[in-house]
Amino acid sequence: PSVPRHTNRLINEKSPYLLQHAHNPVDWFPWSQEAFDKAKKENKLIFLSVGYSTCHWCHVMEEESFKNKEIGEIMNKNFVCIKVDREERPDVDKVYMTFVQATSGGGGWPMSVWLTPDLKPFVGGTYFPPEDGVHRVGFRTVLLRIAEQWKENKDALLENSQKILEALLHRSEIHVRGQESPPPSKEVMATCFQQLSNSYDEDYGGFSESPKFPTPVNLNFLFTYWALHRTTPQGARALQMALHTLKMMAHGGIHDHIGQGFHRYSTDQHWHVPHFEKMLYDQGQLAAMYCRAFQISGDEFFADVAQDILLYVSRDLSDQAGGFYSAEDADSYPTTASGEKREGAFCVWEAEEIRALLPDPVEGATEGTTLGDVFMHHYGVKETGNVSPVKDPRQELKGKNVLIVQSSLELTAARFGLELGRLGALLWEGRRRLSAARAQRPRPHMDTKMLAAWNGLMISGFAQAGAALAKQEYVSRAVQAAAFLRRHLFDPTSGRLLRSCYRGKDNRVEQSAVPIQGFLEDYAFVIQALFDLYEASLEQGWLEWALQLQHTQDKLFWDPKGFAYFSSEAGDPSLLLRLKDDQDGAEPTANSVTVTNLLRAACYSGHTEWVEKAGQILAAFSERLQKIPITLPEMARATAVFHHTLKQVVICGDPQGEDTKEMLRCVHSVFSPNKMLILADGDSSAFLYRQLPFLASLERKDGKATAYLCSNFACSLPVTSPQELHGMLCS
């Protein structure tokens, strides 16, 4: 590579996204006091650009505008320019995204916002093309107009920004309004189910026309709704909606049939043409959803997809020290000789390429059939490419194919006169060869930042899969990742989580000079992961750490006046608002996950004030839960868990005994949303016996592993057979 012409301060950062911009001709600053001081001292406006390293349109705006020398000069002359990685600083992102959504009706990344020297926003948008077009004003024009406004109408701008801030404060407040009680669970669940049912796509699954996101939070809600209404038509429909969506996604192009894992979202209704980036948070949540689908349906198809996701993460997103990387990019060089990256280049195929890789004649099939014929038919490959030009505005996928399963195995087998088993083997061989060919292509960029929150979601994915699929290697991977968090993203002296760490030189794990402290979502997702990990591994140390972190979360983020938790800590003068997220989107909000965490924490510790706190969160979000619960499906789900009271499934037995293992396998094989597991191994000095004195009164019946179902610390009659236990769990 040639010596870069420009280097700015971002060269000293650890974030892969910030490092991508270190050689722009723009004088970028990270989000820092140095930048704020410069803006005040020189009385300059701030231009804030927020994105993330695997964001397609962020790359486009960088290529067009931030690498342009003239535009760089306009930016440097008139503004103090700040770059933020939204995955490192979700708090900063959220404040200004709230502003952009309120003023423009939409949002997304890259986010472009202009601020006064005291950080108040007054103009914002997302992607801007460099020059004026028919429908959009260009970035150069916007920069010059805003600089002019600041010269001519400074006082009006400042006054306006103050008004905007006051309106935002008012709009974004979430607190208890007089009533202290949580909303009625039955109504919230019914409304949420109805709203999801109305937006459901009967043909292709999912909950919108296009674009289509996986939204695991919707599926999780539907599984819980089914579990509580198994015998009703609505319950049956909820299950059908969730299973059909998961099936259609697994068949679609959003699923990487060659390299495993799922892309971020589909640009069309059919789950066919995706935006090709792969995010860790999707893999973690989807692995858990496919395991749930397997527990409920017993269909191996879902177990296979879960294992496919975990294979991808183990192979491609895993750091040797045990942590998980954040994401893999959508764009890459089509060949080693290419000068520019293209979206999806790593994943798409030309028909002739597949024919050349799979020329073998297939014995026993209709005359002249090659492996390529069978493969191309099954995966919807067309000679001229299978991507509609409408879904490819920049013509990057012309003549290319995104693999999508468009016919069942039975139909493909019948078409070529093959047995099912034989067809499976042929398709497997085809995928293997394409995978080997793809390995020769230049890989997309990998964001090797490791985030506590997303690592938490992935630990839950591995732990739940290990339990549901009875695979110890998944539990071990989850344990390894939890140990990584403890070593690299936790400060034992303060008891606090850190947000991020990075893969540095020689593949060592590095920390930034001033580590970023954990946010609410880091605590919520890590605590959830530790509870999941205890249930899968039965190692009480993870429980102990989870409860410590819950106390820390309460101390740092709880709002004693309005109830619920703030997303960020108090005391950061550069944050204009302390917000509470109110939407379960691609990831659930931290308050939603915390409701269930608090109920689990109370069951493992006996601290009933945590149950009260869970109710207070629901009360704070009560109005939204009653009117538009579809925006908070994970919290709607938690209202049911709160209402039905978590049941403790206590297994008394020797962890090494075959009878105990059989009872545990029974618990793990059943999806029951309002039950949690305790192993009482008789060691009265252990953490759980100290926390829960009632455990000492439970004994093994006739010396056999014995199960009790307990609620509010009172227990059912003991059962000793897995069949009886199964009946109890399903009731």
From TrEMBL:
Gene3D superfamilies reported for this sequence? 1.50.10.10, Glutaredoxin
Among Pfam families, the record links this protein to: Thioredox_DsbH (PF03190)
Give the residue range of the signal peptide.
none
Q: Where is the Spermatogenesis-associated protein 20-like TRX domain?
A: 7-168
Q: Which SUPFAM superfamilies match?
A: Six-hairpin glycosidases, Thioredoxin-like
Q: Output the GO biological process annotations, alphabetical, semicolon-separated.
A: carbohydrate metabolic process
Q: Which InterPro entries match?
A: 6-hairpin_glycosidase_sf, 6hp_glycosidase-like_sf, Ssp411, Ssp411-like_TRX, Thioredoxin-like_sf
Instruction: Output this protein's name.
Output: Spermatogenesis-associated protein 20
Q: Which organism is it from?
A: Eudyptes sclateri
